[in-house]
Design a protein that fits this description.
The strands form two sheets. An eight-stranded antiparallel β-barrel has the order 3-4-5-6-8-11-12-13. Strands 1-2 form a two-stranded antiparallel sheet. About 15% of the residues have low confidence. Helices cover about 10% and strands about 65% of the residues. It has about 220 residues and is mainly beta. It is built from one helix and 13 strands; from the N terminus they run αβββββββββββββ. β7 and β8 form a beta hairpin.
């Protein structure tokens, strides 16, 4: 399942640039021109955009349950597509969403007492982004919003007993997750780099008495069309 999702997203990432070049509606939209502070230079931005993203997660699971608490950092992949549209002609404020395959989870213990939790999701963000131009080609893009995620696959590994079992199908973790996302990006022409943090608000543990939440720091590199 994991390999199928990654392969599908990689195919989309390869296909979109070709579609943009051939005029299938993925190219830049109408530009809005705004006079810069110097009065004689013009800065343009797109009314809408599409983007490709690939990056790395550093995640952890915090839980009131000693069994599920994975407060040590676990790294994983973050890959997907983004789409944004300008909300106002008078200001560079955008609504951005997308679809990502993101690998979260956590680690606990060490040696024979070590556990790792792989929690892999399809994630849908919904963000408000502001583009502040610092030149004709460069913009700083702070954003905030939320995300919804559906667990697709993942394993809990017990290194003490050398066993592994599904994270979502054995009474440990719920498949649904949701929370807040804050971050900031930097754009230079078509290139894009950002860093963000997910604050999980949903109880992802199946125990109703102990709260369990995701936390995830992400760095992405990508391009916008």
């Amino acid at each position: 399942m994991k390999k199928t999702i990654i392969f599908t997203l990689m195919c989309v990432m390869i296909a979109l640039p070709a579609m943009a070049q051939r005029g299938y509606g993925y190219g830049p939209g109408p530009r809005i021109q705004t006079v810069s502070r110097h009065g004689n230079e013009y800065i343009g931005w797109h009314r809408y955009y599409f983007g490709l993203r690939v990056g790395m997660n550093a995640s952890h699971v915090s839980s009131e349950s000693a069994l599920l608490d994975g407060s040590s950092i676990k790294t994983g992949l973050n890959i997907g597509v983004a789409a944004g549209t300008q909300l106002s002609y008078r200001a560079p404020v955008f609504l951005e969403t997308g679809l990502y395959y993101t690998q979260k989870g956590g680690k606990s213990g060490s040696g024979h007492e070590k556990f790792t939790y792989d929690l892999n999701y399809l994630e849908l963000p919904l963000l408000i982004k502001y583009k502040h131009f610092v030149g004709n080609h460069t913009s700083i893009q702070p954003y905030a919003g939320g995300y919804l995620a559906l667990g697709t696959d993942g394993d809990i590994k017990n290194y003490g007993t050398r066993t592994a079992f599904s994270s979502f199908d054995n009474g440990y973790f719920n498949r649904f997750d949701g929370g807040l996302k804050i971050g900031c990006g930097v754009g230079y022409n078509m290139l894009y780099l950002d860093a963000s943090y997910d604050i999980g608000l949903s109880n992802i543990g199946q125990d109703n008495f102990d709260d369990t939440h995701n936390g995830c720091f992400t760095i992405n590199l990508g391009v916008n069309f």
